Amino acid sequence: MAEEEDMGNGAFQRAPLVFPGRSGGRSLWLVVLLAILGAALCFVVFATGRIAGTRAEYALRDRALAAFPLAADSLKGEIEKQRMIPLVLARDGAVQEMLRSPSTANEAALDEKLRAIARDAGSSILYIINPEGVAVAASNAGEPTSFVGSDYRFRHYFTEAMADGAAMQYALGTVSARPGLYLSSRVDGPEGPLGVVVVKVELDRVESRWLESGFVVFTTDERGVVLATSVPQWRFGALSPLSAKEKQTARDRLQLPGVTFEPVPLSRRGDNLVTATPESRSAGFVAVSQDLGKAVPGWRMSLLIPADTEISSAVMTARVTTLLALVLVGFVIFIIVRRRRAARQRQEVLVLLNAELEHRVELRTAELQSSNAALAGEIAERENAEARVRRLREELAQANRLSILGQITAGVAHEINQPVAAIRTYAENAARLLGIGRSQETAENLTSIVAITGRIGTITETLRSFSRRASGSMGPILADDAIDGALSLLSGRIRDSGVTIERKRIDPSPIVMASRMRLEQILVNLLQNALDALKDQPKPRVEIALAENGEMVAISLRDNGPGLAPDIRRSLFMPFVTNKEKGLGLGLVISQEIARELGGSLRHDDAGHGRGTSFTVELRRAA
């Protein structure tokens, strides 16, 4: 600006203005006017910078809010993945047997099993505690840091899991002295609690991803004590000073007797801005915070995005641009006034001033074009960053679907066994019919075999389509057609078992929105379970009924078998839970997922012990 003033002064010195008859009062008025204009100019420049800084602050807050779900999901995903391990192991027969009847052979086999699970799942440590609080098996058994034989009665995750069934605690390891999240689940037996399964999750990988993102990310508990964080020196610090009672409560909960919970070097300086010292010097950040909800109860996550450079740049750019624009406007106005007052006396000076003005306009235009080009580059860079974030989200969603596909694929054999059994039945019938010369019926059986082999291909294609985000084709179908198809697939088994099928129809047959093949898959699963339950039962019977309830159509299957035991009913729709000797425990799980994808539901109707078993499929009525 000093250079601009010098340039202007030089131009004016070549042709100084002369105001004939100028008085001292008029000079004073001009000085006052110039002072007012200068004050107004300063105010406008300052206000423009303030507005630009506020906009940059809110833009950074939007970026932080956009990045927050990705940081939170990485933590929630790691915890949810590990949370399932103690829940599943608590129902494992080998774990329950070892806790009931401890033996060296059982402990060695279980140690090896825990070691394999911990290695595959990426868990830090996995161990089992008996009711007395002593670890009896661990994934690090046989190592110098083995947990076997250690007493954990003092740990909250043990006492709370024994009392409530499950628990979660963040604390330092007594052996490793490394922080981690302990997730525990109680092992129940018929006679009562047998012990507790515990997995320790060290969040190093999550914290590393936070650090690589360039943001400052940390979580706090309900007292404001920092737990998981991308700034290790902040761990177990407090966002605000704690009272003596709060410190004692925090030490008891985190079991950190020697920690003083010093305040974290972080202070708020506005609605969105904070000053923090994650490294050697203080800096400004835009901060957003949200509770993590049910995934990690009591935890709150905060994300800080560096703000000083971007806000300062926005303020400086706005002020410089505004100043240049105002100077340019003022200069143009000044020239116009000057030209009007000296048009006749100073024609030569006017030509020079016009040339000088054009030169300055070109310079200002070039500067503005350069600024616009720089802004366009920043916008393109920001759009590329947002595209990368969206791509990462899509890849995370696909990884989640592939994880689900891994579970479903385990049931392929179970699902294909149904049409294979039907093929065998039709083939046996065809052989008998061919032997007695009934060629027409033999051809019909062979045609059915061809159709069922196509069904096997459809089943495998459905699984493959799921991995490509395919949802299957749906349309209006007659509910009775799907029931007929399922009964046809199992006709040979029904006839051989001697089970009576009773159908309660509705005239006309209701039309539902579904995929016929997938609806038949549900019905075949339910019918096969009913046939298994009716084996060796007197007067076996299966009742299939249709009912309409507003916009929904219900298909109910009820048998008069022995019913389900209470422990089976509680875990009926859990994977790999079955009371069949050769069952996989996936039929009902897959059927329930198919019903949900069709926009309906599958439920078990509890009729009481000893009164048979009833399942109901509800689907939306077709328009």
UniProtKB/TrEMBL annotation:
GO terms for cellular component: plasma membrane. Residues 375-402 form a coiled coil. GO terms for molecular function: ATP binding; phosphorelay sensor kinase activity. It comes from Mesorhizobium loti R88b. Its EC number is 2.7.13.3. This is histidine kinase. Keywords: ATP-binding, Cell membrane, Coiled coil, Kinase, Membrane, Nucleotide-binding, Phosphoprotein, Transferase, Transmembrane, Transmembrane helix, Two-component regulatory system. It is found in: Cell membrane. It catalyses: ATP + protein L-histidine = ADP + protein N-phospho-L-histidine. Residues 411-623 form the Histidine kinase domain. It is a multi-pass membrane protein. The chain crosses the membrane at residues 28-47, 316-337. The keyword Transferase applies.
